[in-house]
């Protein structure tokens, strides 16, 4: 406990002393967690709605996962890759019609009221199923939630629902919010959406637009001795180049979600006192994908799609666009997924001659100007890397005689152009793989999705065999049979190429050496940080 | 001939003319010296300047030749600058002549429209226009002209107001010329010189506006632009500053050249008019 008193005294004796003490070199790996301190980190976006039960997205989780907890969190070594949070155990019935959750005892909301199974039932039925962007699909057959006692919640499904899917969805989709706050008035307009109340290790402090979010320690937290930090400050730094300088200057101690540009990492890794961490994002894999509009007659021909796949030098993309911080993709499931990934799929090696031959075979000969046909290419504007890949793809297509005309849009216009108006031939998109293909991956290729649903198949692709496969997998209860079906799904997608998977990437954190317990789970940046600490 | 000599006597005009000539030479020789697509990947990514003499200024984040991009960018900058200035001058001169010559209600209406355009900062106007219509070279030219035609319109109107009272205009009226014919054949040519004197400022402003639009990602992505190059380089400002500095210097020299040459020209003509 001596560590505790020292750090406490240091903290009380003011910031000057704190600054001086960080100058004393301390080896980072033998430390036991210390209490106290304020963690200041960079935030690049300012979500207005901070309710993770409604908006299940990483931008919201980054802040609100410390305040509002889920039933379970992803884990490197836990059973099925999960660690308990608000739920202690979960069990699916053999018929796929119910899942029983045993909840943690003695948990209190930030306003002092006890957490019970009624809160879970309310969140699931009133928010996850009808309102949540991802929950709408996963919980679509949820009929009711029984609460036999305060610490048991039994989810009842109208149709058999694979337990594996529910399990995989827990870390991202199961944020529990308090019933007593949300049962009055319209849920979407509740003031707690902007100042969330949860059970997490930190309470919502304040938000100053354009400046910072402040979270304060929850002294009543259920975790023993947790949380270690007194405060977390999210310093709003929308300019990506400023995060690196702020870290070097010691103004912030952490920049997650690749707030430091990839090109700066090499330089920053040599700065004493800073460390570059590539772990802690395995559960948040982004995929670099070429979306294809199958309404274009040239692109409806599988030979043309194969030619485009052969024209892309994936290694070059990983090396140059991502500076090595990515992996080449083989299909719709990323390589780092432990459950579903299979390498046994058709692959398309970089081969310009073969691509040209395929296009000739398909009947699109080069014209006198060396061009076969012209396409409109819309790179998504959300990441530097998607825009750069757009520039690269234009060059790669030029090499096989396809003239691509780049169209740049802002985020809103891009989503409208691609997913509502279908005004594209090729688009570059960054869909997210969320631990189970049924959550946000099959929707990218499945037919019958209404116009306007973002990050879904809006390219007019229809393949009955593939649709049947997806439907079958969604009602297969046995986990290994279901996994096999998704392996077949990967093969089918890689063979017919409704879209082209190019690369998979995750994020990078840069932190001061003094920040401890970083990246200790696969969704670290969006987990609750109860065990994160600062060495003094 | 004497005008040329006068022009050459002012040192800043000569400096401007040399810079401008160099820029035009760059623009014209771009496809001779660097045939093919300047955005093609030419070598390893992020090669620093002055290391490999086949790629003297180095390469950008995708391995594109910075020198080739610079030459082709000169072409875009110059084309946009001249086209936008020409469009602004033509629209401005026509509107100003009509307003000044017709007077009355037409004058009121046209001048209030001009006021309306002048109250909105021209860059914001261009920004709004491009983000609504979508970026392409033609749209960027229109967007820039949209915010700059008001200056020439006001100057042209003021000139026309004085010219329309001259004797030869009254004479033209007496012989029964159509008012529009008088306005555009007799009045406009004489009102032009002070309007044209504004061209250098407008070209310089247009080049800067185009660069700013490209920097914000609202330029034509299928063409190399200096503003776009600076924006590209900004992400790697700490590791490869030359990617932003090189097109930045080109931009400064170009605007300086256009401005100095324009000033020299104005001075030359002003002296001549003053003497005559």
From TrEMBL, chain A:
<dbReference type="InterPro" id="IPR039424">
    <property type="entry name" value="SBP_5"/>
</dbReference>
<keyword id="KW-0732">Signal</keyword>
<dbReference type="GO" id="GO:0043190">
    <property type="term" value="C:ATP-binding cassette (ABC) transporter complex"/>
</dbReference>
<dbReference type="GO" id="GO:0030288">
    <property type="term" value="C:outer membrane-bounded periplasmic space"/>
</dbReference>
<dbReference type="InterPro" id="IPR000914">
    <property type="entry name" value="SBP_5_dom"/>
</dbReference>
<dbReference type="Pfam" id="PF00496">
    <property type="entry name" value="SBP_bac_5"/>
</dbReference>
<dbReference type="InterPro" id="IPR006311">
    <property type="entry name" value="TAT_signal"/>
</dbReference>
<protein>
    <submittedName>
        <fullName>Extracellular solute-binding protein family 5</fullName>
    </submittedName>
</protein>
<dbReference type="GO" id="GO:1904680">
    <property type="term" value="F:peptide transmembrane transporter activity"/>
</dbReference>
<dbReference type="InterPro" id="IPR030678">
    <property type="entry name" value="Peptide/Ni-bd"/>
</dbReference>
<comment type="similarity">
    <text>Belongs to the bacterial solute-binding protein 5 family.</text>
</comment>
<dbReference type="GO" id="GO:0015833">
    <property type="term" value="P:peptide transport"/>
</dbReference>
<feature type="domain" description="Solute-binding protein family 5">
    <location>
        <begin position="82"/>
        <end position="429"/>
    </location>
</feature>
<dbReference type="InterPro" id="IPR023765">
    <property type="entry name" value="SBP_5_CS"/>
</dbReference>
TrEMBL record, chain B:
<keyword id="KW-1003">Cell membrane</keyword>
<keyword id="KW-0813">Transport</keyword>
<dbReference type="InterPro" id="IPR025966">
    <property type="entry name" value="OppC_N"/>
</dbReference>
<dbReference type="Pfam" id="PF12911">
    <property type="entry name" value="OppC_N"/>
</dbReference>
<dbReference type="InterPro" id="IPR000515">
    <property type="entry name" value="MetI-like"/>
</dbReference>
<keyword id="KW-1133">Transmembrane helix</keyword>
<keyword id="KW-0472">Membrane</keyword>
<dbReference type="GO" id="GO:0005886">
    <property type="term" value="C:plasma membrane"/>
</dbReference>
<dbReference type="Pfam" id="PF00528">
    <property type="entry name" value="BPD_transp_1"/>
</dbReference>
<feature type="transmembrane region" description="Helical">
    <location>
        <begin position="240"/>
        <end position="262"/>
    </location>
</feature>
<keyword id="KW-0653">Protein transport</keyword>
<keyword id="KW-0571">Peptide transport</keyword>
<keyword id="KW-0812">Transmembrane</keyword>
<feature type="domain" description="ABC transmembrane type-1">
    <location>
        <begin position="74"/>
        <end position="262"/>
    </location>
</feature>
<comment type="similarity">
    <text>Belongs to the binding-protein-dependent transport system permease family.</text>
</comment>
<dbReference type="GO" id="GO:0055085">
    <property type="term" value="P:transmembrane transport"/>
</dbReference>
<dbReference type="GO" id="GO:0015031">
    <property type="term" value="P:protein transport"/>
</dbReference>
<protein>
    <submittedName>
        <fullName>Binding-protein-dependent transport systems inner membrane component</fullName>
    </submittedName>
</protein>
<dbReference type="GO" id="GO:0015833">
    <property type="term" value="P:peptide transport"/>
</dbReference>
<dbReference type="InterPro" id="IPR035906">
    <property type="entry name" value="MetI-like_sf"/>
</dbReference>
<feature type="transmembrane region" description="Helical">
    <location>
        <begin position="78"/>
        <end position="102"/>
    </location>
</feature>
<dbReference type="InterPro" id="IPR050366">
    <property type="entry name" value="BP-dependent_transpt_permease"/>
</dbReference>
């Amino acid at each position: 406990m001596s560590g505790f008193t020292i750090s406490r005294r240091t903290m009380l004796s003011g910031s000057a002393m704190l600054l001086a003490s960080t100058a004393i070199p301390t080896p980072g790996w033998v430390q036991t967690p210390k209490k106290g301190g304020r963690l200041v980190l960079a935030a690049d976006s300012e979500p207005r709605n901070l309710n993770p039960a409604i908006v299940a997205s990483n931008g919201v989780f980054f802040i609100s996962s410390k305040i509002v907890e889920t039933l379970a969190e992803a884990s490197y070594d836990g059973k099925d890759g999960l660690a308990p949070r608000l739920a202690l155990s979960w069990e699916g019935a053999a018929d796929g019609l119910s899942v029983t959750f045993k909840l943690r005892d003695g948990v209190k909301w930030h306003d002092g009221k006890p957490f019970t199974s009624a809160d879970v039932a309310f969140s699931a039925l009133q928010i996850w199923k009808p309102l949540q962007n991802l929950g709408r699909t996963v919980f679509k057959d949820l009929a009711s939630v029984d609460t036999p006692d305060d610490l048991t919640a039994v989810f009842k499904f109208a149709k058999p629902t694979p337990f594996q899917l529910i399990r995989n969805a827990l870390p991202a989709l199961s944020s529990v919010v308090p019933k007593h706050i949300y049962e009055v008035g319209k849920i979407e307009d509740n003031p707690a959406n902007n100042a969330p109340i949860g059970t997490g290790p930190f309470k919502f402090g304040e938000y100053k637009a354009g400046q910072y979010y402040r979270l304060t320690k929850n002294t009543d937290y259920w975790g023993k001795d947790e949380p270690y930090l007194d405060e977390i400050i999210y310093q709003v730094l929308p300019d990506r180049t400023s995060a690196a300088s702020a870290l070097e200057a010691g103004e912030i101690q952490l920049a997650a979600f690749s707030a430091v540009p990839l090109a700066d990492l090499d330089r920053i890794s040599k700065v004493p006192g800073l460390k570059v961490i590539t772990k802690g994002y395995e559960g948040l894999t982004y995929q670099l994908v070429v979306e294809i509009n199958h309404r274009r007659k040239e692109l409806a021909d599988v030979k043309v799609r194969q030619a485009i796949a052969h024209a892309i030098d994936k290694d070059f993309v990983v090396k140059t666009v991502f500076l090595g911080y990515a992996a080449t993709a083989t299909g719709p499931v990323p390589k780092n997924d432990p459950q579903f990934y299979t390498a046994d799929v058709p692959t398309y090696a970089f081969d310009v001659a073969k691509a040209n031959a395929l296009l000739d075979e398909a009947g699109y000969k080069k014209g006198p100007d060396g061009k076969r046909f012209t396409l409109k290419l819309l790179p998504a504007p959300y990441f530097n890397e998607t825009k750069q890949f757009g520039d690269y793809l234009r060059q790669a297509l030029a090499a096989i005689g396809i003239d691509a005309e780049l169209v740049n849009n802002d985020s809103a216009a891009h989503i409208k152009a691609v997913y509502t108006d279908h005004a594209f031939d090729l688009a570059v998109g960054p869909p997210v793989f969320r631990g189970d293909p049924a959550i946000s991956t099959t929707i990218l290729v499945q037919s019958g999705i209404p116009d306007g649903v973002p990050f879904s198949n809006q390219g007019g692709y229809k393949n009955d065999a593939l649709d049947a496969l997806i439907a079958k997998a969604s009602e297969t209860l046995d986990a290994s049979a279901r996994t096999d079906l998704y392996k077949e799904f990967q093969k089918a997608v890689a063979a017919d190429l409704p879209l082209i998977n190019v690369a998979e990437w995750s994020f990078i954190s840069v932190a001061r050496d003094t920040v401890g317990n970083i990246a200790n789970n696969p969704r670290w940046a969006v987990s609750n940080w109860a065990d994160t600490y600062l060495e003094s | 001939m004497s005008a040329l000599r006068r022009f050459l006597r002012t040192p800043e005009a000569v400096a401007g003319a040399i810079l401008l000539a160099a820029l035009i030479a760059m623009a014209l020789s771009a496809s001779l010296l660097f045939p093919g697509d300047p955005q093609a990947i030419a070598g390893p990514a992020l090669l620093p300047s002055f290391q490999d003499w086949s790629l003297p200024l180095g390469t950008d984040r995708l391995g594109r030749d910075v020198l080739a991009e610079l030459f082709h960018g000169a072409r875009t900058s110059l084309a946009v600058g001249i086209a936008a200035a020409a469009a602004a001058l033509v629209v401005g001169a026509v509107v100003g002549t009509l307003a000044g010559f017709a007077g009355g209600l037409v004058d009121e209406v046209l001048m209030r429209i001009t006021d309306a355009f002048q109250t909105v900062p021209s860059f914001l106007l261009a920004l709004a226009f491009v983000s609504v219509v979508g970026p392409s070279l033609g749209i960027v030219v229109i967007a820039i002209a949209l915010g700059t035609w008001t200056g020439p319109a006001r100057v042209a109107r003021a000139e026309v107001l004085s010219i329309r009272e001259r004797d030869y205009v009254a004479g033209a009226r007496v012989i029964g010329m159509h008012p529009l014919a008088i306005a555009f054949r007799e009045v406009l040519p004489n009102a032009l010189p002070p309007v044209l004197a504004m061209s250098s400022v407008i070209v310089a402003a247009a080049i800067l506006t185009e660069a700013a639009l490209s920097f914000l990602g609202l330029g034509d992505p299928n063409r190399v632009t200096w503003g776009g190059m600076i924006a590209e380089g900004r992400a790697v400002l700490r590791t490869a500053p030359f990617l932003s500095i090189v097109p930045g210097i080109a931009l400064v020299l170009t605007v300086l050249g256009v401005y100095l040459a324009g000033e020299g020209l104005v001075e030359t003509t002003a002296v001549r008019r003053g003497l005559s």
